[in-house]
Amino acid sequence: MSTPTPPTKPPLLEVRNLSLSFHQQEQVAIDRVSFSITAGSTLGLVGASGAGKSSIARAIMRLIKPDSGEILFKGKNIFMMNSQQMMATRQRMQLVFQEPFTSLSPRRTIEQSLLEPLQHFAIGDTNSRQEKTRQIIQTVGLDHDVLRRYPHQLSSGQQQRIAIARALITSPDLLIADEAVASLDVSIQAQIIQLIQSLQEELGITLLFISHDLAVIRQIANDVAVMYQGQLLEQSPADTFFSKPNHPYSKTLLSFTNNKAPTSLPVENWRLDRGRTTAETTSNCVFARSCQVKMPICDQLEPASHQIQYRNQHPLGPHYVKCHLYEEVNTNDT
Ligand code: SF4
Description:
Layout: E1 11-22, E2 27-38, E3 42-46, H1 53-60, E4 68-73, E5 76-77, H2 83-92, E6 93-96, H3 110-120, H4 126-139, H5 156-168, E7 174-178, H6 186-203, E8 206-211, H7 214-220, E9 223-228, E10 231-237, H8 238-243, H9 248-260, E11 276-277, E12 305-307, E13 309-310, E14 320-322, H10 325-328, E15 331-332
Parallel strand pairs: 3-8, 3-9, 6-7, 7-8, 13-15
Antiparallel strand pairs: 1-2, 1-4, 2-11, 4-5, 9-10, 10-14, 12-14
Helix pairs in contact: 3-5, 4-5, 5-6
Bound molecules: iron/sulfur cluster.
Residues 248, 285, 287-288, 291, 293-295, 298, 303, 323-325 line the site of iron/sulfur cluster.
């Protein structure tokens, strides 16, 4: 697990009360989600497939417009930016997808794919762009001869290294990795996680690392946010989360991971998360249907997000849990 970052630095990214429904499918994707990421740190966003994680990533990139809420990048609301300001902001935040082929054209050489974002954002001239492609290829641990190849001539691990190189070539402040290692086998996964960690240390980038796999989140995150049916159910510094999760959903996720350790956690296999439609009431706990410790109030009233109070103030950041269990008893030992 990465060392938690003290919460003294300003947040690079703030998501405030974000909501989004896909009205055609009558599906709630994001439900009043708030979090922030301290500059230079990694937030691990975990949840089952369909929990709303990728919708948050796309909203941050302003690829989709939320129904309500704000996203602040370096203190500025991205939805208030004009196209010129947004263009400049997009250069500062980049997205790496699960499938490298999504960002690599099969008809372009690797060099052409790496040059494209530099040309798009008008960074440098022909010579400096070519030099930058050679540098970034080295940075992600590949040889220069890869530049002349096409994506299909590379292994899946090499392709994902190229996708990361392409995301980093514009020197972003924020990297969003959306299931970036999910399609890789375990040994390649470990190499890519190590690469992302060393690049983060070297370049000081801030990371939103999205995964369905708590074992992966454990390796990389400073802070953890657990998502279920569009809502954040628990947010905490990673060391606190992994040693003492509070929300019943988090506890079950973690017990599953611990039983299976050191292999990964395919949360989808649980089938606890079937998503929520816009017609379904939000006047209860979204996890009530699957909760083993449900109380009568849980079907009647939606819990608020409570900050856990530690007897000795936890130095590494606040710990929030959205569960009625923590309304009365909200004090934990450190
Ligand atoms: Fe379980 Fe109730 Fe807590 Fe929801 S609010 S997680 S149903 S105890």
